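Lecture notes, unit on protein representations.

Consider one protein chain, 92 amino acids long.
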Amino acid sequence: MSKENKFSHESIQDSQSIKQFLEALEQGLEKGTMHLSNQTESIELFPQGLLKFSIKAKRKDESNKISLKIEWKDNRASELISTAPVNITTVE
């Protein structure tokens, strides 16, 4: 059974504060580890290998929105897969 761990945060920030958050994400991507937390939730992530990246932008009247999304498979799960060679033979 898979365990799901979620983190969510929403707040009003000035552009300099958001820049600092994005820089922290950049550093986490470079190091391959990041820890996100607030007063009630926390999560540790390990971005490695190939990552799926999408960006969307939208303007409607006076409202503007940019959405960033980064996805990857957890490489730690792949460590559980055996890399030993497999032998398949038939018995006569």
